[in-house]
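Researcher: Structure prediction, please.
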Amino acid sequence: MKRKRTAGSRIGYTAAVVLFIVFCLGPILWSFIMSITPQSEMMGEVTTFFPENPTFGNYKKLLLDTEQQALLYRRGIGNSMKAALLSLLIGIPMAVLCAYPMSRLKFKGSVVMRNVLLFTMAIPVFATIIPLYKLYISLRLLNNLAGLVLVYITSFLPMTVWLLISYFDTLPQELEEAAYVDGGSKFYVMLKIILPVSYPIIFAASLIVFLQTWNQFQIPLILAPGHETKPIAVVASEFVTKSTVDYGLMNAGGIIALIPPAIIAIVFRKFLIQGIAGGSTKG
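Model: Predicted structure follows.
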């Protein structure tokens, strides 16, 4: 009886994994097939799952051509990379400087601050987009990379701070007490003692911020609609004219935009899992 249950559990587990993989990778595979399918075959009366004459012309056009469409696409990649890197360089140090005092210093109102921080995580940024849009108009921050980065930082800061707080709470205070005995300041202890042992969670938080910043669509669509600041997610959705939709080019653009975050997630998956597990299970 136990063997039958074990075999049934394995079959169910395998089926669930297969369905999960198909659900996750199926759209990506379909998008890739469309990106290498010629427009004539795509719009023909008889269609097949795989193209009879696959072509990588769409990828060549986006990466090598000098047409305006290709130039805008490559500029969009640069804009996304700049926004993501600036969000990391500014947001992660701010998150560390906020999380460590909230974890170690017990003062009046500290519990309230934590609860407010948790509450702000439940508020979607898009719910405040109208007043934010009016504010950006008055401050002349529309189509401005600095303004876009500011929104990213303030959007992801509560989540990042909470993740770091949960991890800092698990670190034994004996590490810091020994440094205090030797005359070290709080900033010295944080810089020399806490940060070196917290690199998994800091790295994980950096990866999360990078991936979420790279994938943003609605916020830059409203706050950065100009070609100078438009990110790749918005540019890839605009291969549409009044009369036609270039599905092959659109899907090729989506696949190329997927490559940088996919590579980062795969290469650094160990740090990502280790950091998230350390910040959630130990807290």
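Model: Residues 75 and 228 are 8 Å apart (CA to CA).
Researcher: Thanks, that helps.
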